[in-house]
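Re: that chain you flagged

S.,

Sorry for the slow reply, it's been a week of failed gels. I finally had a moment to sit down with the sequence you sent. For the record, here it is as I used it:
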Amino acid sequence: MTNSPGPAVRHLTEEISRIDWDDPRKSARQCRGLLGRLAADRGLLTELVRGTERDPRRFGRSESHPLMSKLCLYEDPERRCQLRLHAFTGRERDLVPHDHKYPFSAYVLAGGYVHVWNRRTDATCSGEFTSRDLAAGVVALERPGSCYTFQHSLVHQTIVMPDTVSLFLRGPKRQSRWHAAGDMLHLLDGYEAPRPGGRSHQGSVPLSPDQFHAVRADLEQRGIIAKERPPHAVA
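Prediction finished late last night. Pasting the structure tokens below so you have them in one place:
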């Protein structure tokens, strides 16, 4: 990170570096504690969001997606982990069962979503699948303060409320690409569908400065981060 991060940011990044992603239970405990403390520390979250705009690498890794804006708050290329803030638009719905390339933890800051955890019933339990290879496991309502850890071998669906904001901490990549129910790809409307041969996916594009400023202003207006004080303001 650039611009001499403060001690709170350095402590947070040290905590992220100690997450044991190879142990699902341990990593879930570590992520829940870390993300919970970050959610409760508006000053630290504000520092991370504002620092993203000043850091060319992190800003370059921030994305606009039909479902959400993704702000890269921190990234460790060596340990292959990334901390993001997701601000959902509410204009699209993520209805297709899918897995992920990596384990991750999510913490809901505002809004919420219906979350369906599926279990695979096919023989391989990995790689390609269809909706016929799934059985609903757990249905949860993720609301502000909810935190969960998701392994790359699981499959889920989310129905996100408009204006939902969450923290997203991802671990190292565990498979070459993600997968979605093959018989439901038409519901993705052409974005983010896994392409044959592992080619790049559709959907995300770099976040523009104007898009970043709009997300930041919304976070300020809702009190998720602190408003920037005018230069003449007295502490």
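What I noticed first: The longest helix spans residues 24-40.

Talk soon,
D.
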